[in-house]
């Protein structure tokens, strides 16, 4: 979906009265000019306060009352702070080299900075609710188009959740609730908030027993008479789950999260091909399926988040509108 890029609203400070006045002086002529160009001339005379949708006095085709344009501008200025999306692209770090030197380090997937170009209004995406553990990522593309990509397998019928800027891995519960309440005026009740998720230590991760399909915590000794909602299998039975964890997380995942960034370090931006990025995306997405990490780790789990972050980075590199050393990267 195309967006309306409102560059003028990026640095609008709601608490500054002078900024309000300056914004109105800039936006009003802009909006009035667009209405006129679109075939909606404005009436500044005696009918300037007539409601065009509630009056029979306004024949079809006449100029619209100026009050309609004023209400239009006020409505959008009031809702843009809660509904606009920051059009952000990634600037990847690629060391400068001499022309023709392809042996120098390439694109570093771990070193990039977001660059905010403006604010966009996406009517459909504005309907997407927030979760502190989102299952989709928004990738900004060329011409203001925004793509919605799954970060992990999503069962049919599940709700798609975006993120309003606060994630359980980067903000604690109190911070998340305060920030969401102050800007969006709601209290988040996503699973991450209800269960008070936070960044946890890998040694205390909860695994799903591959025998009884109930959870147990790594590193904690087995206790008799535990709750029926937790694994009561013997140590020898649990060991099979731990062996699977060692293979999928300590070996396979570790190898992927190390080898993929290392491979891109050998490539300059012009050498990165879409087929390469998509191949890695397919592999990482499969790792989050229930037959792999999704069926072994009980959320929250840092290894799961590592994969999702790498997926998001690759999605931005493949489909997004990013830059490397001031050179545009666009693979699709």
TrEMBL record:
CDD domains: SET_SMYD4. GO terms for biological process: methylation. GO terms for molecular function: histone deacetylase binding; methyltransferase activity. It comes from the Eukaryota. InterPro entries: SET-MYND_domain_protein, SET_dom, SET_dom_sf, SMYD4_SET. GO terms for cellular component: cytoplasm; nucleus. The keyword S-adenosyl-L-methionine applies. Residues 28-165 form the SET domain. The keyword Lyase does not apply. Keywords: Methyltransferase, S-adenosyl-L-methionine, Transferase. This is SET domain-containing protein. It comes from Echinostoma caproni.
């Amino acid at each position: 979906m195309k967006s309306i890029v409102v560059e003028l609203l990026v640095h609008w400070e709601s608490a500054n009265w002078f900024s309000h006045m300056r914004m109105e002086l800039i936006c009003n002529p802009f909006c009035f000019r667009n209405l006129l160009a679109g075939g909606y001339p404005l009436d500044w005379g005696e009918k300037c306060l007539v409601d065009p949708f509630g009056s029979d006095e306004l024949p079809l085709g006449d100029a619209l009352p100026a009050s309609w344009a004023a209400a239009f501008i006020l409505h959008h200025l009031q809702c843009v702070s809660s509904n606009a999306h920051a059009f952000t692209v990634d600037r990847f770090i690629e060391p400068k080299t001499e022309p023709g030197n392809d042996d120098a380090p390439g694109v570093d997937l771990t070193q990039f900075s977001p660059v905010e170009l403006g604010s966009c209004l996406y009517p459909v995406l504005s309907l997407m609710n927030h979760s502190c553990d989102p299952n989709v990522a928004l990738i900004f593309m060329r011409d203001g188009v925004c793509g919605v990509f799954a970060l992990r397998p999503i069962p049919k019928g599940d709700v798609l959740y975006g993120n309003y800027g606060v994630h359980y891995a980067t903000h604690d519960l109190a911070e998340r609730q305060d920030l969401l309440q102050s800007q969006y005026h709601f209290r988040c009740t996503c699973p991450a908030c209800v269960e008070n998720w936070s960044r946890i230590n890998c040694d205390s991760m909860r695994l799903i027993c591959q025998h009884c399909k109930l959870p147990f915590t790594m590193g904690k000794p087995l206790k008799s008479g535990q709750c029926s909602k937790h694994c009561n299998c013997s140590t020898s039975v649990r060991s099979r789950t731990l062996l699977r964890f060692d293979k999928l997380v300590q070996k396979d995942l570790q190898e992927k999260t190390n080898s993929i960034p290392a491979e891109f370090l050998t490539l300059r931006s012009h050498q990165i091909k879409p087929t390469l990025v998509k191949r890695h995306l397919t592999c990482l997405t499969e790792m989050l399926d229930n037959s792999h990490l999704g069926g072994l780790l009980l959320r929250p789990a840092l290894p799961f988040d590592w994969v999702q972050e790498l997926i998001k980075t690759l999605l931005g590199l493949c489909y997004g509108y990013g830059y490397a050393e001031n050179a545009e990267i666009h693979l699709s």
